[in-house]
């Protein structure tokens, strides 16, 4: 799609904005104009990166330079920054911020609160003292330091649990120590520490056609509606896109409706953590790569038609470094083999295990005409 065509689709989207959208939170910003403006430039592409991929001889360097947005894959988490209480180490965030500044890229902080990578000392302290100062100190160590350098933060990651949660909120240390309002408190605290940063929450398992994902979509929408109604400073919602081919095709209409409903509350949106877990690695490679590319194309088709969508980030660039390999016994066997048989890896990212571009690379370029990723490899 050309720049002109994408502008056109934005303008036609404006024409058909339902009255309800204009009347809701979006009216605050002139019928959602700030959302549309962000989309006028087309939406952007980014990827999760690991610190070692940013150094001089990394085979991923040229692909990383083509990203508009960089996200630390795991080294931005609380437990990776401050594994010893009161002794934060900023080396990794500093490296990614410096790299991004050199290449004119933006950085998304990931994440301030995520139960899974919260240090044990912090869990203990929160549960014992129930004192918000534990969280405030953590935020104060990162947000002001990177103000103007990290322009988007995942403030809370993965907070919904419709099966065993408390009114759909996951029973995490944060939730246990501070109650379900911890999400609102976290956003308010983050806004004070860096008034300029865009603040987001980010959630998974929202894109498949099954009763669990449907419940999770409803729960997230209710949470976002509640936060926005209370005036909590929530700017963006991240929809994690870990697609599992075994779970069937992405239900495009349902997803489109869900994105629209979220946007109607006044937030902008991002597709985050996009990758594909394959279901059959015995198929010919071209067929496997086609299925992966088509699955992501179906997400991108929905995203393209949603004016509030600002970006898509994949969870890594190369299969060799994908976290999905950690989840697969087949891959564990392949990684143990010498030499590495990269065809046995899950092939859910744009580049294969030897950094060769796959069909997905071209699919992304075609769908993101205004991203620097659209330029040939
Ligand atoms: C994963 C990383 O990719 C792994 O390397 C790490 O060991 C665990 O975390 N949802 C998220 C991401 O929000 O932070 C997770 O990343 C993947 C699931």
Characterization of this structure:
This protein is an alpha/beta fold and 377 residues long. It has a single domain (35-375), classed as Alpha-Beta Barrel (TIM Barrel). It has 15 helices and 8 strands. It has helices at 3-15, 19-23, 33-40, 61-65, 78-81, 91-102, 120-129, 133-142, 173-178, 182-193, 211-229, 252-264, 285-304, 329-336, 359-367; strands at 44-49, 69-72, 106-113, 152-157, 198-203, 236-244, 268-277, 309-314. The chain has an 8-stranded parallel beta barrel with strand order 1-2-3-4-5-6-7-8, surrounded by 5 helices. Strand 1, helix 4 (61-65) and strand 2 (69-72) form a beta-alpha-beta unit. Helix 8 packs parallel to helix 10, helix 12 packs parallel to helix 13 and helix 13 (285-304) runs parallel beside helix 15. The longest helix is centred in the C-terminal third of the chain and has 20 residues, at 285-304. The radius of gyration is 20 Å and the shape is globular. The two termini are 19 Å apart. Residues 1-33 have low confidence and may be disordered. (3S,4R)-3-hydroxy-2-oxopiperidin-4-yl beta-D-xylopyranoside binds next to loops.
């Amino acid at each position: 799609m050309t720049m002109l065509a994408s502008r056109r689709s934005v303008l036609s989207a404006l024409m058909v904005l339902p009255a309800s959208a204009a009347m809701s939170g979006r009216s605050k910003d002139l019928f959602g104009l700030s959302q549309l403006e962000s989309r006028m430039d087309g939406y952007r592409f980014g990827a999760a990166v690991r610190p070692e991929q940013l150094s001089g001889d990394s085979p991923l360097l040229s692909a990383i330079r083509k990203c508009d947005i960089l996200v630390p894959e795991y080294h931005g988490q609380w437990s990776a920054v401050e594994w010893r209480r009161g002794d934060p180490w900023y080396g990794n965030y500093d490296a990614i911020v410096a790299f991004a500044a050199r290449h004119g890229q933006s950085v998304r902080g990931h994440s301030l609160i995520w139960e899974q990578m919260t240090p044990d000392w912090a869990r203990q302290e929160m549960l014992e003292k129930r004192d918000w100062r534990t969280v405030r100190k953590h935020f104060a160590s990162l947000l002001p330091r990177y103000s103007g350098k990290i322009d988007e933060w995942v403030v809370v990651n993965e907070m919904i649990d419709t099966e065993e949660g408390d009114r759909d909120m996951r029973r995490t240390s944060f939730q246990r120590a501070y109650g379900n309002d911890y999400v609102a408190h976290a956003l308010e605290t983050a806004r004070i520490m860096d008034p300029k940063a865009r603040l987001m929450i980010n959630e998974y398992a929202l894109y498949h056609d099954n009763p669990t994902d449907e419940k999770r979509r409803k729960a997230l929408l209710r949470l976002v509606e509640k936060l926005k109604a209370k005036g909590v400073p929530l700017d963006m919602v991240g929809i994690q896109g870990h697609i599992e081919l075994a779970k069937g095709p992405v239900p495009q209409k349902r997803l489109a409706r869900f994105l629209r409903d979220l946007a109607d509350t006044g937030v902008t949106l991002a597709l985050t953590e996009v990758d594909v877990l394959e279901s059959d690695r015995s198929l010919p490679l071209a067929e496997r790569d086609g299925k992966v590319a088509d699955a992501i194309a179906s997400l991108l088709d929905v995203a393209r038609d949603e004016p509030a969508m600002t970006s898509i980030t994949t969870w890594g660039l190369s299969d060799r470094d994908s976290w999905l390999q950690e989840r697969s016994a087949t891959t564990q066997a392949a990684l143990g083999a010498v030499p590495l048989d990269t065809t046995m890896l899950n092939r859910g990212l744009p580049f294969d295990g030897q950094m060769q571009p796959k069909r997905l690379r071209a699919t992304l370029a075609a769908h993101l005409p205004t991203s620097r990723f659209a330029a040939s490899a």
